[in-house]
Write a structure and sequence with these properties.
nine-stranded mixed β-sheet, alpha+beta, 10 helices
Length: about 450
């Protein structure tokens, strides 16, 4: 009779191999995996998190159970998700652990790694874990959520530092290109408010100017225009813009900020309107109760937004409740000898597209509570695209505020707006991990705007 030989099963090999690969993956991501050893009874090891900026070990850990398979589909696997059913005995054991336990699944055939907390099962189906193939992939993007599990919830001040580095921050600033010349003149009026009535009596009216202390300042040459009525024509002089733009005189800085605002408002007046009380520049409605669409390029892909949106009353379905307009609050800052525009996205609410809504402030407050980082970022990209004068190509007609058909002549576009390059941050903001730990996250995500009407006037095809 042949002697019995020692054997190692394929499952044993795959299990050991999978644990080794998970350890390598965790270490590649900058953290430490410690295996339990030969005495493990349901927990293969622990991950201790390391501060990627300082290299300091945080003392924060999660326990890990690795499940490896050579090939084959998971339960109910699709292109986007799959399920995994835990054994009752395993789940009871993991729940008794003093450390939070995560399950890491590795498939050798496609070298895929997915993870999930063992307590993430839905109520009533605690044993069943639903994996999202994008969200639950074990990669650098997952480390903040994974590390957040290690925080002691009952201990005040306990936290883990961000687990990722090198995130790009997109600035809401645009560099302003100024004309070489600026026009100054004496004025018989002490302020712009005093001069308005006289200017309104003329046929050609422009409002891209400032009068302060009987001094007129504008990028527009007032000669031959209605502006002659509010200046002493014999004193008109063109000077270098930098004499005022770079001046250390506080009065000149105030004049420059107001002049930039007024010039921008007039420059964009073909498609945007100015609301003085909230100091908001917002998309005009073309007609009453008419939505308006604008196509632009986000970070990479063309996209679109309803920049004027009409909403019905919830109870009286045939009655318009409000019209919402995309807008922004402009601020002008001088930084390092250059002028910049700061874009702060907001909204204006009107009754019909033209008259300011009587509850505009309340509607805005409600909308702001629902806004998330993604929507705000999208608005910044929208206005950045618009102000830069970009377009989506010859086949896509442009809502042109910069000299297209029906718009102002190009010579009147005194200001240029240049997009800033993104800045690389030392650490990445763990927004996804924060959202998961926020008890109100699901409720806030579920809040959606009312369904708008579909009578759309497309600005771009």
């Amino acid at each position: 009779m042949a002697a019995l030989m020692k054997t190692v099963t394929t499952n044993q090999l795959n299990g050991e191999f999978g644990e080794t690969l998970v350890k390598a993956r965790v270490m590649k991501l900058g953290h430490v995996f410690q295996g339990t050893g030969r005495m493990e009874t349901g927990i293969d090891g622990t991950i201790e998190f390391r501060d990627p900026q300082t290299g300091r070990m945080t003392g924060k850990m999660v326990a890990v159970q690795v499940k490896t398979r050579e090939k084959g589909d998971y339960t109910a696997e699709s292109d986007t998700s799959f399920e995994y059913l835990m054994r009752t005995a395993d789940l009871d054991y993991w729940r008794s652990s003093s450390l939070p336990v995560v399950l890491i699944l590795h498939r050798l055939s496609d070298d895929s790694f997915f993870w999930k907390g063992v307590s993430d099962g839905a109520p009533g189906e605690e044993r069943r874990l639903l994996f999202d193939k994008v969200r639950d992939r074990l990669d650098s993007a997952a480390m903040d959520r994974l590390a957040a599990l290690s925080v002691e919830r009952g201990r005040l001040g306990s936290h883990v530092p961000p687990m990722r580095t090198g995130e790009l921050a997109h600035l809401n600033l645009m560099r302003i290109g100024l004309p070489d010349e600026i026009f100054v003149a004496d004025s018989p009026f002490a302020s712009g408010r005093n001069a308005i009535a006289t200017l309104l009596a003329t046929e050609e009216r422009h409002f891209d100017w400032v009068i302060r202390g009987r001094r007129f300042v504008s990028f527009r040459d007032p000669r031959g225009t209605g502006l002659e009525s509010i200046v002493d024509v014999d004193t008109i002089e063109a000077v270098d813009t930098e004499l005022i733009a770079d001046s250390d005189d506080p009065d000149d800085e105030v004049v420059m900020i107001e002049l930039l605002r007024r010039t921008m408002v007039e420059q964009l007046s073909e498609g945007l309107a100015w609301e003085q009380k909230s100091r908001t520049l917002y998309f005009r409605a073309a007609e009453r109760y008419q939505t308006r669409k604008y196509e632009y390029r986000s970070l990479r892909e063309p996209t679109s937004a309803m920049v004027v949106q009409v909403y019905f009353n919830k109870k009286r379905k045939d009655e318009v409740h409000s019209v919402r307009h995309h807008g922004f609050n402009p601020r002008f800052e001088r930084i390092g000898g250059e002028w910049f525009l700061s874009i702060s996205p907001t909204f204006i609410f009107t009754e019909d597209g033209f008259r300011l809504h009587r509850f505009s402030a309340d509607l805005l407050a409600g909308k702001k509570r629902k806004d998330r980082n993604g929507s705000i970022r999208g608005q910044v990209f929208l206005f950045r695209f618009l102000l830069s004068g970009a377009n989506l190509g010859a086949d896509s007609p442009m809502f042109d505020l910069f000299g297209g058909a029906g718009g102002p002549a190009p010579a009147q576009q005194f200001l240029r707006f240049e997009t800033m390059e993104p800045v690389e941050m030392e650490v990445a903001v763990p927004e996804e991990a924060w959202a998961v730990s926020d008890p109100n996250a699901k409720k806030m995500k579920a809040e959606n705007d009312d369904v708008p009407i579909q009578h759309t006037l497309e600005i771009m095809a």
